[in-house]
Amino acid sequence: MGPGVSLQRKENVMDNGKALVDPGFIEELEMLATLNRPCEIIFRSGNDARTVIRDRIAAVDAREGREWLVTGSGLVIGLAKLVEVDGKRPLDRC
User: Fold this and answer.
1) Are the C-beta atoms of 54 and 61 separated by less than 8 Å?
2) Is residue 56 assigned to a domain?
3) Per-residue confidence of the chain (94 residues) as pLDDT tens digits?
4) CA pair distance 48, 36, nearest whole angstrom
């Protein structure tokens, strides 16, 4: 792993026993973090509104069964809230 990436892999965030975040998607996020370049990040905010930002991924982390990424500007986004990052989508949660 590159600088700024500290993923302590535990269980993926679970909902009714079903993984919400594909491990392959997490690896893609880790790769983007090592590239240290801005990318488009689309996620659902607290009121479920679709939010689009352009920022670099500073870190991908997991603790106590929760996974998230931290942007270069310091925004923390739960991986389960991600819709798309740099044109890549997480595992469908339907």
Assistant:
1) no
2) yes
3) 444 444 333 334 434 334 467 888 989 999 999 999 999 999 998 888 999 999 999 999 987 778 899 999 999 999 989 999 999 998 654 4
4) 28
- Report the domain count for the chain: 1
- For 88, which DSSP code? B
Buried b (16+ CB within 10 A) or exposed e, 14-26: eeeeeebbbeebb
* pTM above threshold 0.90: no
- Please answer whether residues 68 and 29 qualify as being in contact, where contact means their C-beta atoms are separated by less than 8 angstroms: no
Looking up residue 72, the CATH number of its domain turns out to be 2.30.30
In a domain, 22, yes or no: yes
Contact assessment for residue 87 and residue 76, using Cβ atoms and an 8 Å cutoff: no
Residue 64 lies in a domain: yes
Q: Which domain covers residue 18, as residue numbers?
A: 14-85
